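Suppose you are handed only these lines of text.
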Amino acid sequence: MASSGTIQLIYLQDCQSRQSSRKEVMARLPKPAEGSWTEHYGLGTAPVSYEGTTSPEYYEVEREAVFRRSWLHVGRVEQVDRTGAYFTKEIAVLGTSIVVVRDADGKVRAFHNICRHRGNKLVWTDFPSEETAGVCRQFTCKYHAWRYNLDGSLNFVQQEGEFFDLDKGAFGLVPVHCDVWQGFIFVNFADEPEQPLHEYLGPMLGALDGYPFERMTERRVYRTEIKANWKLFVDAAQEFYHAPVLHLKQNPPALALPMQDNGFEAPYYQIDGPHRVVSTNGIRAWDLPEDKRKRMDTITRSGLFGAWDAPDLGIEKMPAGINPGGCEPWGMDSFQVYPNFLLGIWSQNWVMSYTYWPTGFNSHVFEGTLHFIPAKTPGEYLAHEMAGVAFKEYLLQDANTLEATQMMLESGVVNRFPIGDQEVLCRALIEETDRWIADYKEKKGIS
Ligand code: FES
Ligand SMILES: [Fe+2]
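From them, the structure of the protein bound to FE2/S2 (inorganic) cluster can be written out as follows.
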């Protein structure tokens, strides 16, 4: 009789034999690829430096070269779902705060959150450094009551007659470029963005148009400050072969242990301009015999990969950009929108989004949002809760590890690190950021 270890292995081999392999996926590409993804995308293969995560000088340049020149995701349109609905966002990496608001014409706008009178922060509630949200007809400064319309124009000055030739038309709020893609609000702090948002996002992300993000209004938001450079967390979600190791205990042992022995391969990677995606095959806990599953997973019909019962998306056909490599069975796509936004689209018809907001060279604020089509039954709601609990658990495992990594990278004892083909996107991120910095320095004439 086969031992339980053997049964587990047979189950997994059966699972793996049905899954897309890198070779199969590569052969199907419009331009068939051979060998490694790293070579396919023309990246180097030498060990890499992580100086970009430990150098305060690198970070200072990155702030201007990357964060002031790229489109940054700050929220969803549902957060400003009516005239006067607003939220503030602290943008420590650029030393500012913004307020995002829907104006009377229905347009979503963004402004620096500073009063034009004497510089008070315009919108805040109890604590000046904390973000806030609400609905108003106009913004009124707490200090001397200057008032601004929702389009940013100044409409009231206290004791206006005591000012000297004050032209109210010249003292509106300072605008920030703001645009919306698929309900995701982006801002750009450049004087003039180098590309409009849609062009910046490029064809890979453009091919997601039509995915019903707007229906996923049941959200759970998690936020924490992590003592690690922002790029280290990006890396943790653009390779998945750490999962059977770092997140071993979160998978049912019947899945995780053989996977750890046999390795884990993401079958598809794509790089499109500064943006990237990695797709994984699906692992379906519900295919396991019941005694091999986690009991809570069975009870809640949910777990690490979301609810087992996928809701109907209400669309006739998946947009072409979903599962772009045609992985079978498909698990998820992890899209990395340069520089600091992740969009994870799961085969179980839910979405997660991450943003990483640098607060220093070795710290950042992480925000993770789970987006679900609203539950219609208590069972569905419980399944969403379970997905949230599982998410928090693996996030803590990642976050702990990132702090441990940052700590030792900063020791400077080692400065060349070999990274493999499953880490092709980590390499791409380093090369891409170096390129943005080189380009910025060249344009500014900095040596
Ligand atoms: S600082 Fe805002 S009204 Fe004076
Ligand atoms: Fe992880």
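What can we learn from it? The longest strand covers residues 351-360. The two ends are 70 Å apart (CA to CA).
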